[in-house]
Design a protein that fits this description.
Elements lengths: L4 H17 L6 H14 L1 H13 L10 E6 L4 E6 L5 H8 L4 H10 L5 E5 L5 H10 L4 E5 L3 H13 L6 E4 L2 E3 L3 E6 L11 E3 L2 H5 L9 E8 L11 E4 L5 H6 L2 H7 L2 E6 L1 H8 L3 H9 L3 E6 L6 E3 L2 H6 L8 E7 L3
Parallel strand pairs: 3-4, 3-10, 4-5, 6-9, 10-11
Antiparallel strand pairs: 1-2, 7-8, 7-9, 11-14, 12-13, 12-14
């Protein structure tokens, strides 16, 4: 398909910036990738990532040079992929990722708590949680993507003193086995990693060139993990949340943790195979109260299912919800 005038102009500008800053202009294959990144992630993020890779003499579309970055004013350090134009981009630019969750963790987490982080990504929230709970506490971080997990593992080695994070390189599901992991053609967003047992389901959702697919282990939490207590479950797995939480149902009943979940109706329908209202009902039926986690300050606004649905109309893809156990 022929580029429109706006895309052509942006590619020409990117060529010019590349030659001034890093020397060579993008190859034809690189231009194809950059064109798609601009469509998915915007011009500024794409240019920043391209220049970082060029200045570090990095190449490739599924991994760039690793940059060590301070996070949250130096509270901890992180290994960030220069090719990550979303999570990594924000950490490099601001030292933070998802400030509303940072604010919630700062208020909620205390020394000695146990956190289960389902979909830990490159580990920003897991590392922050570990700083909050200290060595009296524990963080179980589940991340099936090998690149993301390797960056989190490197970040853990950087910490002085060490942090109480157990990294489990696997997905959570309602049964033990394997799942297909895919970036759906958006490798430059480390947070866009989707899991399903059926590859054809994922193939129907591909929205970028050269999507990656791999097989990863999937475990049921109950029966395999028993941390003794769980105070918070943070879960963000691109629509697979119902399946992962179904595999934790006994632990949820025993420990009654607070649950922080992404709520993305489209992903729930396409990946989770469930209507978003039914996902909310599943949690409410277990005697939880729902609140919307407001951006950017992390305030909690009590909400009914219709309120949560109203927040994800139009162009907004998702909202983060906090489910608080009702005292029995």
């Amino acid at each position: 398909m022929k580029d429109g005038p706006g895309v052509t102009l942006r590619l020409l500008l990117l060529d010019l910036v590349s030659r001034v800053v890093t020397g060579p202009r993008p190859t034809s294959a690189e231009r194809d990738v950059l064109r798609e990144q601009m469509r998915l992630l915007g011009f500024r993020r794409t240019v920043r990532g391209h220049l970082l890779r060029g200045m570090c003499d990095g190449a490739g579309t599924r991994g760039g040079p690793i940059i060590l970055a301070p996070a949250l004013g130096g509270l901890f350090s992180m290994a960030v992929d220069a090719a990550d134009l979303v999570v990594g981009h924000d950490i490099l630019a601001t030292g933070a990722w998802e400030p509303h969750i940072v604010a919630f963790y700062t208020r909620f987490l205390r020394a000695g708590m146990t956190v289960v982080d389902v979909g830990a990504n490159i580990g920003f929230h897991a590392l922050h949680a570990a700083c909050r709970v200290g060595h009296e506490g524990r963080v179980l971080a589940f991340e099936p993507d090998p690149r993301n997990a390797s960056l989190l593992r490197l970040s853990l080695r950087l910490q002085e003193p060490s942090l109480p994070v157990d990294l489990i390189e696997a997905a959570l599901s309602d049964r033990d086995g394997t799942l297909i992991l895919s970036d759906l053609g958006n490798p430059a967003n480390s947070g866009a990693r989707f899991t399903h047992e059926d590859r054809s389901t994922l193939e129907k959702l591909v929205h970028g060139p050269r999507p990656g697919f791999s097989t990863v282990p999937a475990w049921r939490f109950d029966g395999r993990f028993d941390p003794g207590r769980i105070d918070l479950v943070k879960i963000d797995v691109e629509g697979f949340e119902p399946r992962a939480l179904a595999g934790m149902v006994e632990s949820l009943a025993s420990y009654r943790p607070t649950i922080l979940t992404e709520f993305a109706p489209t992903n729930l329908r396409e990946i989770g195979g469930i209507e978003p209202e039914d996902y909310l009902a599943w949690l409410l039926d277990r005697e939880y109260a729902c609140s919307i986690l407001e951006e950017p300050d992390g305030r909690l606004t009590p909400a009914e299912p219709r309120d949560a649905m109203a927040r994800v109309t139009g162009e907004r893809h998702h909202v983060d919800l906090v489910f608080t156990p009702i005292a029995r």
